[in-house]
Amino acid sequence: MKLGRTCGRRRSANRQSAIADRQSPFGTPHSALRTPQFKARGGFSLMELLTVISIIGLLLAIGVGASGIAGRKMREARLRAELHAYTTAIESYKAVFGHYPPDNHRIVRDRNGTNDLNVNPAVNQLYYELVGTIATNQGKLYRTADRQTWIDSETFQETFNVPGIVNSVQWPTTRPQSFLPSVKAEQRKQAKLSRKADAVEILVAPVDWPAKWPNNPAFSPPFDKDAKLKRVNPWRYVSTHPTNNPGGFDLWAEYMAGSQWRVIGNWKE
């Protein structure tokens, strides 16, 4: 009699164990967890960690390289967009005035009495000619329509080697003819580029001058005490005997892309 009860208890325990094994949420029988053959793993080996670190480093390098290329493409796209806008404005200017905007050129006579043409493409009055100016005091003072500060003709003469601005209207006219109806604040910079003259405004490229060349800025010499002037990168312009577009004008921007020096101008795609 006792033997029958014992067997019944064993069969009942076996059934409960089987039910528990089937209901295990981890898919591993509870009986297996109790066996000495099953052991939990403590962590990764050194080789596995090094492999994972190498893969992560490779992915980061690929990501940084891709972001650098994307950034360069974006800057070049902005440069080309501005180049197209300025080129169109300059051609529209010529259609009205019959000539291209003047550049910063002068005739230098050497010791032998020979005249030599000297053009400074970085320092030019292109901004004033394209946006238009308001003149007063018989053409001795100028300002753009969105500025209240007047600039005298001596400043233009000393900075740009021109006596005044061709595209100007007489005061009290409030709106001169503009070939660049929308110029954003970051597309122009105000700087003092002559020793005695006042500050003037110029069109600048959306790419800063390389920081590693602080002693070779686009403006030489920089008379402005602001150190940021050395990072300013102007649009360069030549209309007097241009090298690349004879009979026309050269307009270009220079910038550093990685370790390569690049030029985007109206004579090359």
Descriptive overview:
The protein is of the alpha+beta class. It has a domain at 79-105 and 119-265. It contains 5 helices and 11 strands. A hairpin with a 2-residue loop joins strand 10 (250-257) and strand 11. The longest helix is centred in the N-terminal third of the chain and has 52 residues, at 46-97. The protein is elongated and about 85 Å long. The chain starts with a helix and ends with a strand.
SSE arrangement:
Layout: H1 2-22, H2 30-33, H3 46-97, E1 105-109, E2 115-119, H4 126-131, E3 133-136, E4 141-143, E5 151-152, H5 153-160, E6 168-170, E7 188-191, E8 200-203, E9 236-238, E10 250-257, E11 260-265
Parallel strand pairs: 3-6
Antiparallel strand pairs: 1-2, 3-4, 4-5, 7-8, 9-10, 10-11
DSSP helix fraction: 25-40%
Tally of extended strands? 11
Please count the helical segments: 5
Report Rg.
37 Å
Mean pLDDT: 80
- Class computed from helices, strands and strand pairing: alpha+beta
Gap from first CA to last CA: 104 Å
Unreliable spans are 24-35
Biggest β-sheet description: 4 strands, mixed
Order of strands, widest sheet: 5-4-3-6
Q: Tell me the strand percentage band.
A: 15-25%
State the shape.
elongated
Order of helices and strands: HHHEEHEEEHEEEEEE
